[in-house]
Amino acid sequence: MLEASGMMVFYENMLALNNISMNCESDQIVGVFGANSAGKSTLMYALSGIILDIKKKELMAGGERITVAGDVLFDGKALTGVKPSKRAKMGIVLCPERRRIFKESTVLENLKIGGYLASPAKARDTLEFVFSVFPVLDKLKKRIGGFLSGGEQQMLAIGRALMAQPKILLLDEPLLGLSPLMQAMLIRSTRDIRDQKKISIIITEQYARPVLPIVDYAYVLENGSAVLEGTRNDLMDNPDVRAAYFGI
Ligand code: ATP
Hints:
Elements: E1 2-11, E2 14-24, E3 29-33, H1 40-48, H2 50-60, E4 66-74, E5 77-78, H3 84-90, E6 92-95, H4 107-114, H5 120-133, H6 135-139, H7 150-163, E7 168-172, H8 180-197, E8 200-205, E9 217-222, E10 225-231, H9 232-237, H10 239-246
Parallel strand pairs: 3-8, 3-9, 6-7, 7-8
Antiparallel strand pairs: 1-2, 1-4, 4-5, 9-10
């Protein structure tokens, strides 16, 4: 479904992604794990095409030179040069790191903004689905986004991404800064989204442990390179891997 091959990203002459090849099949949940600065967000920007916007902005501002190489294929079609807005319309939707919701708008307004491209009937159905996965958002729908807790804001960010009708959802560090209880709830919801809507999901995290139980396949990044990959069982069954990367 979504396949990257030989992805390279340089910020000036700093290599942030080094020849990354990865694949997410239909209905799969794929994990991408790595420490701070490993390149997780850069990979998400490359897959969603946002790196092209960042590159353009930097160029216009006379800032650093960003170089992107490699191919991304979506259902077999090359996405080279395809703008992020077009990729989103095709069904590749990024839910970025640090929950960028509209803090001045209500929960319902945030969700409706996310669904602006969908037909009214689809938007209504998806809204119902979002409330079924995150019932607390239904209760808080008139609340201003900025007044929500971190976990509620993360649910809203995922809900808003769902309203954009993704075929593949890119979740960049959704668990960051949340309590273990909230993390567990979000991980269950992530699995429900895949199971109930057949949406493929790529999820990045620093710590694999809370996420590993729901992934079908995972990659470990170190300094922009993929140092390890395998199915959940491959990774879980390897004692060296478990000790070194997953703290179990
Ligand atoms: P984190 O968990 O901290 O979000 P990450 O794994 O998402 O980390 P990236 O944000 O992709 O990592 O960063 C990879 C490397 O690229 C880091 O060394 C970072 O400092 C650098 N980097 C990221 N964005 C830029 C940019 N716009 N300009 C220059 N360097 C950047």
